[in-house]
Amino acid sequence: MNPEKQKALQSLKTAKGQIEGIIKMIEDERYCMDVSNQIVAAQALLKRSQILILKQHLNHCVKDAIQQNNWEEKNDEMMKVIEKIIT
User: Are the C-beta atoms of 42 and 22 separated by less than 8 Å?
Assistant: First the structure.
């Protein structure tokens, strides 16, 4: 596994633990602002994972496609993901 995927996986595992903690906080009827702050932290971990996965895709999959002169499909894939991210 390359470094980007490894870091993304660790961020996702951390986010998973954080989300489980958030669920417990809600079940325990903890203060809403504390819950909200934890949700923001979990979202940041998910965003970090997304960036790492996209970086891995660009550095490996897209790079390989460019070298094989077959980048159009990868370009379309990236544009679809970027559109989802920004909308």
Answer: yes
**Domains with residue ranges and CATH for the chain:** 3-86 (1.20.58.1000)
pTM for the predicted model, two decimal places: 0.84
Tokens standing for 79? 């544009």
Two tokens, residue 66: 């460019």
Mean pLDDT by groups of 10 residues along the chain of 87 residues: 92 97 98 98 96 92 90 91 93
Q: How much is the pLDDT for 71? A: 86
Q: What is the 3-state secondary structure (H, E, C) of the chain?
A: CCHHHHHHHHHHHHHHHHHHHHHHHHHCCCCHHHHHHHHHHHHHHHHHHHHHHHHHHHHHHHHHHHHCCCCHHHHHHHHHHHHHHHC
